[in-house]
Write a structure and sequence with these properties.
It comes from Desulfosporosinus youngiae DSM 17734. By secondary structure, this protein is an alpha/beta fold. It is built from 16 helices and 19 strands. The structure holds iron/sulfur cluster (SF4) (2 copies).
Length: 445
């Protein structure tokens, strides 16, 4: 079977972002294949440890992806502060005879170094045009865990597990290999907190993750981290403000200082994203959304809301509000047709990760989260049929049916973009509803 079909059948999706099906990404042709090893979300420690634990597999996965898209060069982007990982990767690239094809480049320790468009610029000096994807400038980007999953797919192994950092104001910070479908409760139960009611849980990193209203979900292929903080922590209070409240506060308190714009990573790449203008529009006429199409250029990195704004307002949330309204009215931003240049002041306006961590009130928790061996023995797992961009998978099993670990349980609908899903344990299908398959775990032989 060829690589595209192996990757497709294994259900590989982008492990670092929205979950775009990888086989679809690899149908393109590009000059560069880039490995996103930036891991710029504070406190998360997955990618750096995977690169240390599985260097050859990640290199092989990246190489295979690069050859597939006919890239002339593969570049790994890893933050310069991870000296050990960089040394190891360079050594293994050389040992595997790939120095002509692959190199490691050191990234600055800035936020958001892992944003695809920032990464492309940092590694190639190219700028992805507004509202476009890296392919537009000859680049395909995959993240470290995705490269690992590509390598495993070549060996016939479907994606049934993911790596997750559990971090925050907790006794034991750790990174775990977790079977897809295990309950989040079970994962965060490993971190030694004995008063869980005092905590809120952020699903993902502190910057882009959202606070879970109820911790009743299940791990998906995209799950990367859970950050536990006391409910009265600044970040939890800030992230818990409703959109309506953010709107009311912004309308009355924005002083139009434009710090949100001046530090916006997309604005600094020359795009027209100017959140202070969206905030200004808010002060006048919320219904007049047509002129706020720039909101669609926002990558939701949250830098404006959690770092830049001196008045502690919510420009990212307001962007989201306008994005929603624009979508409801079917209005799409018309990108500027031009050669984008980074703003001249960009180098002086990058956000240092350490400063960001301090501003978020997370310095005390910015600690290692070592890879820890935990054997999960859940009673049930719930596998979501849509863990990716595209159409939900269609169940190919029935209630009462026995399944094996790694067995296909949901397939891609015909002629659709999507990814299949597999069971991560042996067991019996107990329920199929709410776009998910519940499996009672247990041997049936
Ligand atoms: S940084 Fe804050 S106060 Fe300044 S323009 Fe942006 S939203 Fe308004
Ligand atoms: S969240 Fe704010 S800083 Fe980030 S891209 Fe959007 S407007 Fe810019």
């Amino acid at each position: 079977m060829d690589l595209l079909n192996l990757v497709k059948e294994a259900g590989v999706i982008g492990a670092g972002g929205a979950g775009f099906p990888t086989h679809a990404k690899l149908t393109s042709q590009a000059e560069y294949i880039l490995l996103n090893g930036a891991e710029c979300e504070p406190l998360l420690r997955v990618d750096q440890q995977l690169m240390e634990l599985f260097p050859d597999q990640i290199i092989r996965g990246l190489e295979a992806a690069g050859r597939q898209v006919e890239a002339r060069k593969a570049i790994m982007g890893i933050k310069g502060k991870h000296k050990k990982v960089i040394g190891l990767m360079r050594e293994r690239i050389s040992a595997l005879g790939l120095t002509d094809y692959m190199e490691v480049m050191e990234l600055r320790d800035i936020y958001p170094a892992g944003d695809e468009q920032v990464l492309v610029h940092e590694l190639t000096q190219r700028i992805v045009p507004e509202a476009a994807i890296p392919l537009k400038v000859g680049c395909v980007v995959i993240n470290s865990e995705t490269a690992l999953n590509i390598c495993r797919a070549i060996a016939g192994k479907p994606v049934t597990e993911t790596y997750i950092t559990v971090a925050g104001d907790i006794p034991q910070r750790m990174t775990l290999k977790v079977p897809v479908g295990v309950s989040i409760q079970e994962v965060i139960g490993q971190c030694g907190v004995d008063n869980p009611d005092d905590y809120a849980v952020i699903d993902g990193g502190p910057m882009m993750g959202s606070v879970l209203n109820q911790v009743n979900g299940y791990v998906t292929k995209k799950s990367k981290g859970y950050v536990l903080l006391k409910k009265d922590h600044f970040l939890i209070r800030k992230k818990s403000v409703s959109l309506e409240r953010a709107r009311v506060i912004g309308k009355t308190a924005c002083e139009q200082c434009r710090m949100c714009t001046d530090l916006c990573p997309r604005y600094l790449l020359g795009h027209n994203m100017q959140p202070h203008k969206v905030m200004r529009a808010l002060s006048y006429n919320l219904e007049d959304v047509k002129d706020q199409q720039i909101a669609q250029l926002c990558c939701e990195c949250n830098a404006c809301e959690l770092f830049s704004c001196p008045a502690n307002l919510h420009p990212r949330s307001v962007n989201s509000l306008y994005k929603r309204k624009l979508a409801e009215q079917g209005i799409r931003y018309q990108p500027l047709e031009m050669d984008f240049q980074a703003r001249p002041a960009r180098d002086y306006r990058l956000i240092p990760s350490k400063r960001l961590v301090m501003k978020l009130g997370l310095s005390a928790f910015d600690q290692p989260a070592p890879m820890t061996q935990v054997e999960f023995r859940p009673e049930y797992i719930r596998i979501a049929l849509q863990q990716h961009i595209g159409a939900p998978a269609i169940p190919v099993v029935e209630i009462g049916e026995k399944v094996k670990a790694g067995q296909l349980i949901g397939k891609i609908p015909d002629n659709s973009l999507g990814a299949p899903v597999h069971s991560s344990f042996e067991g019996t299908v107990a329920e199929i509803k709410d776009h998910s398959i519940l499996i009672k775990v247990g041997s049936y032989v």
